[in-house]
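Hi R.,

Here's the chain you asked about this morning:
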Amino acid sequence: MKIAFSVTADNGLNSLIDARFGRTSGFLIVDDANEPQYISNEQNLNATQGAGIQAAQNVANTGAEVVITGNCGPKVFRVLSAASIKAQVLQFKFERKTNDQTLKNNH
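And here is the predicted structure, written out as tokens:
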């Protein structure tokens, strides 16, 4: 199965998931048969409109079957669905208390 992750930078399997889809810096394409591949989304970073739709089309061109991202709008979901790509939206929540405790444990 080929999976596309929206990521903040090209750091291979150490890349962080980007909460954005259309204006992510790129996508990490991962499958069990090949090395991870980074696909830049630079052309959509400053788009005035249509960034999500264009990004969805770029992901579809990779042959991805699933997208994992932080957020997708309804137009993106329609494009992905038309390409038979499933989207999994992750919810991010950071808790200050946990981070403070981690800092204390590391010092």
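One quick note: The chain has one domain: 3-105.

Cheers,
M.
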